[in-house]
Amino acid sequence: MGRFHRHDDGTAHSHEHDDHDHSHGAHTHDHRHDHGDHTGYQTGTQRVHVLESIFAENDIHAGLNREMFENNGIRALNLMSSPGSGKTTVLAATLDELASEMAVGIVEGDIATDIDAAKLDGRGAQISLLNTNNGFGGECHLDAPMVNRALQGLDLDDLDLVVIENVGNLVCPAEFDVGEHAKAMVYSVTEGEDKPLKYPVMFRSVDLVLLNKIDLVPHLDVDIDRYIAHVREVNPSAEVLPVSARTGMGMNSWYDWLRRFVRT
After folding, report:
1. Residue 50 confidence (pLDDT) above 80
2. Is residue 151 located within the same domain as residue 205?
3. Residue 11 and residue 122 in one domain
4. In whole angstroms, what is the distance from residue 35 CA to residue 3 CA?
5. Are 168 and 131 in a shared domain?
6. Domain count within the chain
7. Does the global pTM surpass 0.90?
8. Cα separations in angstroms, 182 against 3, 43, 66, 134
9. Are residues 152 and 242 both part of a single domain?
10. Domain hosting residue 15, numbered range
């Protein structure tokens, strides 16, 4: 007979007990066990390797979103920024310019309120509001399952472009694939030239950077070339367009970029 034994280091082996004298008539047992220093059977710890990515579920939904876009001939853009960079103002100006020549849907992501959605209402786009407030403060980003739910509020058959306006944050949104075909961000000159160096994941993830509020340059201690140089330091391939959504300065380059994006 053998007994299975596991040591603290995770090794296991069996002991053969051929020296047992079992006298069943008298019910006497002479058990001579030699386990060295072990006084009893002990359990130990084992390392378990988990090979599934924590983003696995998100990536599955991102693939479903992308499939929905492609089945409907839609190009999808994930638009990100920090709070207050002017992202919604950029979108409002964009709808005023392009809504008459292409069908646009907006997934409007915010932790709470419909303030930004209201600013875009009546400008010729379909809008699906997505609040992330869950009673515990709300998510600081949109993920693919959230976007999947918001897409149910859009008539995808009639759209050419979907812009996903992400929650204002320079960290988390860049880490989640939501099914987009490209990522862009709005970066304001009021945020300081160091942001690409302090938040490289965001800047490294995008295809386009809109350097907004350049109309304020005469009133600030700002060197536009340094802003652009710091973007290039972390993302040499991103296109950088200096713009002012408030005055319209440089916005034609952004509109042309979107036209090319939709035709791709």
Report:
1. no
2. yes
3. no
4. 12
5. yes
6. 2
7. no
8. 61, 52, 11, 28
9. yes
10. 1-48
Q: Provide the pLDDT confidence category of residue 47 given band limits of 50, 70 and 90.
A: confident
Q: Is there a single domain that holds both residue 61 and residue 186?
A: yes
- Averaged confidence pLDDT in the chain: 86
Tokens read off for 113:
């309120």
- For residues 82-93, average pLDDT: 97
Task: Supply the DSSP string of the chain, one letter for each residue.
Answer: -EEEEE-TTS-EEEEE-TT-EEETTTTEEE-----TT--S-----------S-TTHHHHHHHHHHHHHHHHTT-EEEEEEE-TTSSHHHHHHHHHHHHTTTS-EEEEEEESS-SHHHHHHTTSS-EEEEEE---SSS--SS--HHHHHHHHTTS-GGG-SEEEEE--S-SSGGGG---S-SEEEEEEEGGG-TTHHHHSHHHHHH-SEEEEE-GGGGGGS---HHHHHHHHHHH-TT-EEEE--TTT-TTHHHHHHHHHHHHH-
- Could you tell me if 239 and 149 lie in one domain? yes
The CATH number of whichever domain residue 197 belongs to comes to: 3.40.50.300
Residues 55-65 pLDDT 10s = 899 999 999 99
Summarize pLDDT for 130-176 with one digit per residue, the tens: 999 876 557 789 999 999 999 999 999 999 999 999 999 999 999 99
169 with 251, same domain: the answer is yes
More confident call, 20 vs 154: 154
Q: Is the per-residue pLDDT at 96 higher than 90?
A: yes
